[in-house]
Design a protein that fits this description.
Layout (H helix, E strand, L loop, with lengths): L1 H11 L1 E4 L2 H6 L6 E4 L17 H11 L12 H4 L46 H4 L1 H5 L8 H9 L4 H9 L5 H13 L7 H6 L8 H11 L18 E2 L13 H4 L8 E2 L21 H9 L19 H12 L9
Antiparallel strand pairs: 1-2, 3-4
Helix pairs in contact: 3-9, 11-14, 13-14
The chain binds heme C (2 copies).
One heme C (HEC) binds next to helix 4, helix 5, helix 6 and helix 9.
């Protein structure tokens, strides 16, 4: 498992070491950059938390370490599994002692690009986000002082933190290490990318028909636009709401935001079932049927969610197109 994850990182990332000439002369740790192909924005790295190889490696280890949960049985990786596109495959995640949460675990691939985190945008940075699952009683359920105590009493972590940060485990150093690791989780090369950059043979006739519908008559790209196939806004796509989860309104307290959720990226979507904030749809066919029906006519439904009257072939074409968004290097 460990070796596999390392191999995966090597395949998925083109990490280059910047400023190599200067390095030999100075004591500064190597700053790594995540390189991305044309068409992708540069990966945003905040100045206060530069990526270094040792920090990313420490973050990777912390991400997979169950000692960060009360029962020592759940790690970040339990719900964001590296070998399955950083999801858990469950409708709603299961944390310590089998407790079920409210929402579906999103993939963490390309999470560095997300302007706001969580389905409701309730978290602003990858660093501060780390604290939420640690303390959430349906996830890892460990108070932060206990988290730090475990790290400080660990045989290796105190020295590792000092090597990376010049100081021991603390909330800032813990969250910076995990966030640094997460910023390296970039997923690019899909058949759709090859098609975009001029390889017309990369998609079949049916997939091209689906692409034309997605950006044309079906109007999916009203919300699923740009290189991540999301406008990163909060929209209401006509799902029947549940009592438990009002979506963006949980944060803004604005009644017009009831039932609005963050538009998810559709990269790798064929591998990240089940779908929607509560995992209510098991398949892409069910998702397309939802949009074809014009949603459920809910309060605050976006006006572009209208009956589409797609033929069977057109629905198949849309699903086929969604399958072309997979980064094939990540298929287990
Ligand atoms: C019990 C399962 C579980 C565990 C453990 C867990 N997560 Fe998550 N994660 C989720 C769920 C569910 C969501 C969506 C929550 C929401 O939107 O309210 C999520 C959301 C996220 C997001 C936001 C992604 C986005 O696109 O908005 C990040 C980042 C993240 N988790 C990182 C972590 C890290 C780091 C850890 C460990 C410290 C962790 N998770 C532990 C289930 C889990
Ligand atoms: C009005 C904006 C909007 C339009 C138009 C739209 N979507 Fe969405 N889409 C969303 C939102 C918002 C979600 C998440 C909703 C939720 O979880 O409650 C979503 C979720 C999805 C998901 C699930 C992804 C996941 O990881 O769970 C898929 C697949 C999807 N849309 C495909 C499509 C397709 C195909 C079309 C065109 C037929 C389309 N969307 C049109 C806003 C939109």
């Amino acid at each position: 498992m460990e070796t596999r994850r390392c191999a995966w990182l090597l395949i998925a990332l083109a990490v280059c070491i910047a400023g190599c000439d200067a390095l030999s002369a100075s004591e500064e740790p190597e700053v790594v950059q995540v390189t991305v192909p044309d068409g992708f924005d540069p990966v945003p790295i905040p100045a206060f938390n530069p990526l270094t190889a040792a920090k990313v490696e420490l973050g990777r280890q912390l991400f997979s370490d169950p000692i960060l949960s009360r029962t020592e049985a759940v790690s970040c990786a339990s719900c964001h599994e590296a070998t399955r596109f950083f999801i858990d495959g469950k409708p709603r995640s299961i944390g310590v002692e089998g407790r079920e949460g409210l929402r579906n675990a999103p993939s963490l691939l390309n999470v560095a690009y997300q302007r706001l985190l969580f389905w409701d945008g309730g978290s602003q940075t990858l660093e501060s986000q780390v604290l939420a699952p640690l303390e959430n009683e349906a996830e890892m359920d460990l108070p932060l002082d206990a988290v730090l105590e475990r790290l400080m009493n660990h045989p290796d972590y105190p020295t590792r933190f000092v090597e990376v940060f010049g100081e021991g485990p603390s909330i800032p150093t813990l969250t910076q290490a995990i966030a640094a690791f997460e910023r390296t989780l970039v997923s690019t090369g899909s058949r759709y990318d090859r098609f975009q950059t001029g390889d017309t043979q990369a998609l079949t006739t049916l997939e091209r028909e689906g692409e034309a519908l997605f950006f044309g008559r079906a109007q999916c790209s009203t919300c699923h636009s740009g290189f991540l196939l999301t406008n990163q806004q909060f929209e209401n796509n006509g799902l029947r709401p549940t009592e438990a989860d009002s979506g963006r309104a949980r944060i803004t307290l604005n009644p017009q935001d009831v039932g609005r959720f963050k538009v998810p990226s559709l990269r790798n979507v064929a591998w990240t079932a089940p779908y929607m904030h509560d995992g209510r749809f098991a398949t892409l066919e069910a998702v397309v049927a939802h949009y074809d029906a014009g949603g459920e006519g809910t309060q605050n439904q976006h006006p572009r969610i209208q009956p589409l009257h797609l033929s069977t072939q057109e629905k198949d074409a849309l699903v086929a197109f969604l399958h072309t968004l997979t980064d094939e290097a990540l298929i287990p």
